[in-house]
Write a structure and sequence with these properties.
This protein has 304 residues and is α/β, with parallel strands linked by helices. The chain has helices spanning 3-15, 18-25, 29-43, 59-85, 99-104, 106-116, 129-137, 200-211, 228-236, 246-254, 284-296, and strands at residues 48-51, 54-57, 90-97, 119-126, 143-146, 155-170, 181-182, 191-195, 220-225, 242-245, 258-263, 269-277.
Length: 304
């Protein structure tokens, strides 16, 4: 049993696919298959059920997986400790982020972290809040920055910053308002640009409106869009209005490209969160990243 065999085994267990495991490890599929076959031969045990092209762990595989992850993490820790002793901390951090954190939160923190650990690299994938959670629970991503919170006992959430949703509108569109506040019924008269399904912004908008007995089916929605930047440009040229993070819109508002409103008697406050799987066994580098993030955002890290 060697490290390469265990890495191949953990990758196949993670993706439930020999081809995907091969891509992650930069190996050929026959090489990954050979590693697994040699491991099964050495242990005299079948590690995967391979019925109907569906790959699942056997009981022996489940036992090995728990130990293999621990062994590989200990190997990573040994390498990390040696490099830390020699003054060189390096590695790759995988992050999933939804739109607003990706643009307005993550860059400043990465700049701070990179100034201390310049040899650490980052892989940042853009996912909506729901899909980011899925990727973390599947073990494909270590950390996430998201704009909505769901009730999931497997996910650890840290509050990062506060924000609010506001209604942005073209400069030349006059909406009946009281010092910047509009009645909720005014929404029925407007044409909307909305984020696509899965977006934390969209989920929060719809949920809050429903809580105030507003029928969202009455909204006149022109388009569903993935990008906040696209939404701002579409609103700017007069295609409609949209509920959007104030943090993402403030530069447009400051530069008189958009104006914004709030809805009377409705609180559209929101938070952005840092998340990870409670079952995740962190490498030393990931622990360093997590500790640095908690220090940067003044978060008290609790033991799960």
């Amino acid at each position: 049993m060697d490290v390469k065999q265990l890495e191949a085994f953990v990758a196949v267990a993670k993706y439930k696919s020999f081809s995907k495991a091969a891509r992650e490890l930069f190996l050929t599929q026959p090489t990954v298959s050979a590693h697994i076959q040699n491991l099964e031969k050495e242990l005299d045990a079948v590690l995967f059920n391979r019925n109907n092209k569906c790959i699942t762990l056997t009981k022996s595989g489940e036992i090995l997986l728990e130990n293999a992850v621990s062994i590989l993490n200990n190997c990573k820790k040994a390498i990390y400790d040696i490099k830390e002793y020699s003054g060189k901390i390096e590695g790759l951090i995988d992050i999933a982020s939804s739109s607003i954190p990706e643009t307005y939160i993550l860059p400043d923190f990465i700049k701070s972290f990179s100034s201390k650990y310049p040899d650490v690299k980052f892989s940042i994938s853009h996912f909506d809040s729901q899909y980011a959670i899925s990727e973390i629970l599947n073990g494909r991503i270590s950390f996430g920055f998201v704009g909505s919170k769901t009730s999931n006992p497997q996910i650890k959430y840290f509050d990062l910053i506060n924000d609010e949703l506001v209604l942005i509108a073209p400069i030349d569109l006059n909406i009946d308002n009281d010092n910047g506040y509009i009645d909720i019924d005014e929404l029925n008269k407007l044409k909307f640009i909305m984020r696509k399904e899965g977006s934390g912004t969209r989920n929060l908008t719809f949920n809050i409106l429903k809580e105030h007995n507003f029928n969202i089916n009455n909204l006149n929605i022109l388009a569903y869009v993935e990008s906040n930047e696209t939404i701002k440009e579409m609103v700017k040229i007069g295609l409609g209005v949209s509920f959007i993070s104030y943090k993402s819109a403030k530069d447009y508002i400051k530069n008189n490209k958009l104006k914004f409103y709030r809805v009377k008697n409705i609180n559209f406050a929101r938070k952005f969160y840092f998340i990870y799987s409670k079952k995740k066994a962190f490498s030393p580098l990931e622990n360093k990243f997590l500790s640095s993030l908690c220090e940067y955002f003044d978060i008290k890290r609790e033991i799960d």
